[in-house]
Amino acid sequence: MNLKLATEIGKCLSNQTRVQIMEWLKDPEKNFRQHESLRNFDDGVCVTHIKDKSGLSQSTISTYLTNMQKCGLLILTRHGKWSYLKRNEKLIKEYTDFLK
């Protein structure tokens, strides 16, 4: 991990709602309902469920999630018209190791 990426991740995590989203995604089974067509959370949580739980507007949550994805904190998977996000545990570990 380099300093530039660590700084970008720090910026992403400088907002309480974005940190809360990361916390929710740490245990998706506990924090979200899964779409009927998917049996598990292997591909993450539907963006709509994240938006609904956050209580934020579509544009705000879209900006937050896009920025979190761009810096690598979240991994996007699409199923048809639906987008699913999950935490990038590898990058999170690299980030925490870098901070140590």
Automatic annotation (TrEMBL):
<feature type="domain" description="HTH arsR-type">
    <location>
        <begin position="1"/>
        <end position="100"/>
    </location>
</feature>
<dbReference type="GO" id="GO:0003700">
    <property type="term" value="F:DNA-binding transcription factor activity"/>
</dbReference>
<dbReference type="InterPro" id="IPR036390">
    <property type="entry name" value="WH_DNA-bd_sf"/>
</dbReference>
<dbReference type="InterPro" id="IPR036388">
    <property type="entry name" value="WH-like_DNA-bd_sf"/>
</dbReference>
<dbReference type="InterPro" id="IPR011991">
    <property type="entry name" value="ArsR-like_HTH"/>
</dbReference>
<keyword id="KW-0804">Transcription</keyword>
<dbReference type="InterPro" id="IPR051081">
    <property type="entry name" value="HTH_MetalResp_TranReg"/>
</dbReference>
<keyword id="KW-0238">DNA-binding</keyword>
<dbReference type="InterPro" id="IPR001845">
    <property type="entry name" value="HTH_ArsR_DNA-bd_dom"/>
</dbReference>
<dbReference type="GO" id="GO:0003677">
    <property type="term" value="F:DNA binding"/>
</dbReference>
<keyword id="KW-0805">Transcription regulation</keyword>
<protein>
    <submittedName>
        <fullName>Winged helix-turn-helix transcriptional regulator</fullName>
    </submittedName>
</protein>
